[in-house]
Amino acid sequence: MADLHQQLDGATAAVRTTFGATHPMYIGGKAVESQEQFEHRSPIETRILLGRFQRASREDAAAAVRSAPSAFAGWSSIRWEDRVALLRRLAQTIHARRLELSAVMGYETGKSRMECLGDVEEAADLIEYYCRQFEEHDGFVRHMESLHSREENLSLLRPYGVWAVIAPFNFPLVLAAGPVSAALISGNTVVFKPASNTPLLGVKLYEAAESAGLPAGVLNIVTGLGDTAGQALIDDPGVDGIVFTGSTAVGMKMIRNNAQRAFPRPLIIEMGGKNPA
Predict the structure, then answer these.
(1) Extended beta strands in the chain, E state
(2) Over residues 71-80, mean pLDDT
(3) What is the pTM of this model?
């Protein structure tokens, strides 16, 4: 443990030198700035400016959704083995950067060192888990029984489309990397919005994906407030499915609104906090 804490000391000192930068959003593989920005400060010491981030508008979120289908055609058509290889490289990248990411998480969330390190390692583990699931189930292509010798029946897992992943602040890496990687490995494209008080880790996840070699536009990130950028993603008809972790009030509203759609879309919702009256 002494060696580990010494390594984390070094990582903490290193990441402090990177604080204060201005970070863009990434849409279609390009750095994008919004009309408004916001300062993001550490909860453990508000004099520490972690960075300046884009306050995405509804129009920015819509632009990200519009860009995702263009990447979908290429990404969904490649061999599932190739997607697994790229996602496994992302897991390895996160693991290799675990000290840096843990140090950033400590400043951004105020969590303990071991809690931060566990969050980072679990993020890499979840991605590895999805990779193994695809390999162990042969890409989820299953031969089914036939009524005739000249008949062949298959059960196939097909890419679905554009997924919005809206992540929470309390487990900012694992509850982002998990659903993002699950959607990507299945051949979908993603528009990702991190929580407004953990945008730096969201950008770090995007950078890790880019470093791992994911094609441009497969993963997009918008930063900002939940009631603007997040709600815009929820409302956008171009979003085919949503993963949301957040309040019970917002989650239940999403379920009720989804039931009124002509074609309800898949929702994966984890809700916390006080139940609405």
Answers:
(1) 22-23, 25-27, 30-32, 37-41, 49-54, 141-144, 153-156, 162-166, 189-193, 219-221, 241-247, 267-272
(2) 96
(3) 0.93
